[in-house]
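Q: For a teaching handout, I want to show students what a protein-ligand complex looks like in token form. Below are the inputs, and the small molecule is 2-keto-D-gluconic acid. Please produce the holo structure.
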Amino acid sequence: MKQRLLNAGRIPPALEARLAEAYQLATLPGDCDRAAFLAAHGAEFTALVTSAAVGTDEALIAALPNLRVISNFGVGLDRVDVAAAQRRGIAVGYTPDVLNECVADAAIGLMLDVARGFSAADRFVRSGEWLKRQFPLMHKVSGARLGMVGMGRIGRAIADRAAGFRMDLRYHSRRPVGDVSWQHEPSLIELAKWADFLIVITAGGPQTRHLINASVLDALGPEGFLVNVARGSVIDEAALVQALVEKRITGAGLDVFDDEPHVPQQLMALDNVVLLPHIASCTRETRQAMADRVFDNLQSFFTEGRLVSAAPSP
Ligand code: 8YV
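A: Here is the structure, written as tokens, with 2-keto-D-gluconic acid included.
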């Protein structure tokens, strides 16, 4: 007898097809039909698949009284109520490690792009501006000072890459990380004052909400750049827009936003900002590896009673 699996997230079609072979898969209907569906069928499901962008709230968990396992497509758990799941003894799986390299590549790419102005220069060539004038001189990355906000798995992958650019690196996190040689900076403001580039790669959620505020941006200063590959919520977006418009920082490379896919209109007109549609992990290879981990977490849970990658307790 196949387990009943409910899909509440946005997962790749190939993963959905694979899950549909191994499980009795149903898709959670949209808002209007959801309550009636859950009242009629909620008790049938033992497993739930979701994605980092959608997550799982306490109300959904409560509507699934026989739920045993949640498998999240993504490493970010800021939208999954892990505490509510764990209170009920529900196992929560996610997809760490397999996306470290691509997210780190994207962070470095954004840093290079915004500092050297590659996207802006591309627009400059396409619009015929090159026929009229020279592209302005931009900013050197190699050898510059990199402040990292967060030093988890992805942070380390970014730091390894920055070493290849001979960057001077310090990091801020709540506690120093035991096994890294880079200097820990307990004050985020001091890190921002020191850094030429600030890369944000810390977990989202209430604990880090608006960690990067107007004071941090002012400490980074008019020569500084910000890169965000974490979550939009980590930055006070209104303060960032204002700092960019007023040139209180030089530029920003952003893969994530507060209200995706909506991006503040004021950013669209700025040439010193690189805007990406949350694609840091979006390569075929990494998305395949993430999909495999979602599948393997479920399979391992139902055959061996444990997840390949279990979410830490919040
Ligand atoms: C994904 C991510 O873009 O893993 C995460 O937490 O932010 C990204 O890899 C996406 O959120 C997957 O649903």
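A: Two things your students might notice: The domain at 100-275 is CATH 3.40.50.720 (Rossmann fold). The first strand starts at residue 4 and ends at 7.
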